[in-house]
């Protein structure tokens, strides 16, 4: 760990607990900061706050009082999920107090370079693929961010022999100042998280921060088939490495004559790859680009691609019951992800969808309903999804209260050979804390059918 002196004896406010807030507090204390931790959950119900209090931290719970800004703050380190519309953050910006997320702290102390992976969809699969390829190629990678351990905890232990692979959200990227990945990657851009960012333009602006500090000695891997991504990267100073599943881009990763190539070198035949779906081919191309930029040999890449079957909650095969196959795609928290999930199957699909209402409709799903024979909806968006299904002429549509009931209903209306797919097209927060919890509930409900 680099010994960063900029926080020594400086007042720092950590806003929001959870894993990232706890890790940031611990790190800042080691760096000599005078740390105040603030969380909205009352102290009596807040185990992390109680633990930090016992460790000597100044802890304020129950609200976000503006009086916290009176301590000549050097900066605020906030939980990525707390929106900038929070009154305390609005006032902090008026006072020109810097607001970071813990990924910035991780970068400042890290001896290891970073790979930063972002996008609307495919981040987790691409991150996992890249990590596996680097491990197979003996590059000593460490994983952090939205998957794996909190980034600043990983950065504390990393050496210059490691490389830190991070999956980054738009929320995290809004809170960077100096963060500069050696390799950045944007999988795709789709309208998402408008409840947080307000507009698509603000969402794209946050994502584009991944390029902000890169120089010509760094690399930006970008989806050549995505107009939004290519527009984002126009102002980047990094060396651009495109990937495409539809065009030959000889300076990057692409498909030609049934094989994946990187910079005109054949890497692997597509038919050897076990991970299904066109969208996953894009994720694979992106991961291959990372691996080849770091000199991973073809054999190591092939070993991963001939054995990797996917990540949890992303088109995860669950089981087969009476010749009906069940797939858990709970990580599909937006429309684009569900479009890609549906498109991955040739057999008839019974779609289970619904969740948090972020204000959008679901008509963009209509062109993808051709092989959806039935849809079971639940949650805040269930009526909106039914409206879109009816516009598509789908006759078999039913609304239920929750995921468990949806599984029972889907099975009751299924036939031999059907695919029963949970791909919600919505965030999970109306009924669940996380998409993982939602996916696990789906899996439990499926196994109860047995």
Automatic annotation (TrEMBL):
GO terms for cellular component: cytoplasm. Keywords: ATP-binding, Cell cycle, Cell division, Cell shape, Cell wall biogenesis/degradation, Cytoplasm, Ligase, Nucleotide-binding, Peptidoglycan synthesis. InterPro entries: Mur-like_cat_sf, Mur_ligase_C, Mur_ligase_C_dom_sf, Mur_ligase_cen, MurD. Its EC number is 6.3.2.9. It comes from the Bacteria. GO terms for molecular function: ATP binding; UDP-N-acetylmuramoylalanine-D-glutamate ligase activity. Cell wall formation. Catalyzes the addition of glutamate to the nucleotide precursor UDP-N-acetylmuramoyl-L-alanine (UMA). Belongs to the MurCDEF family. This is UDP-N-acetylmuramoylalanine--D-glutamate ligase. It comes from Gottfriedia solisilvae.
